Amino acid sequence: MDLSMFTNLNGRIGRQQWWLGVIALMVVEWIIIFVLTMLFGQPMPVDGAGEFGYSSSLSPVGSIIVIIILLPFIWFFICLYAKRWHDRGKSGWWTLISLVPVIGLIWIIVELGILKGTEGPNQYGPDPLA
Description:
Elements: H1 15-40, E1 41-45, E2 54-58, H2 60-87, H3 103-114
Antiparallel strand pairs: 1-2
Helix pairs in contact: 1-2
């Protein structure tokens, strides 16, 4: 997996690379959140009465640390989405559709994760499958 797909807005990637990139980023995020929750978490009752054990929730300081550490992931996802939009022959600005609740998520999954890209070269570069 080429790491430039997470840091560069130029070029195109296919569906398989996009799915692998999205899954990889999500797994890394979950690991970071898990580790930081264990380090900066505070115990809280699972059922409110505390009879069935405890869960861990981030303290306010832990929450701020998680936000700061995960901020770069926004850029990584934007780069990944832009490259996939480019493969579909569209501007990376289409990533903003993800801000529309529910419909945006469905649109992203269908458009980027299911539909094929433009065959052959387009204005954003050569076909990644060629």
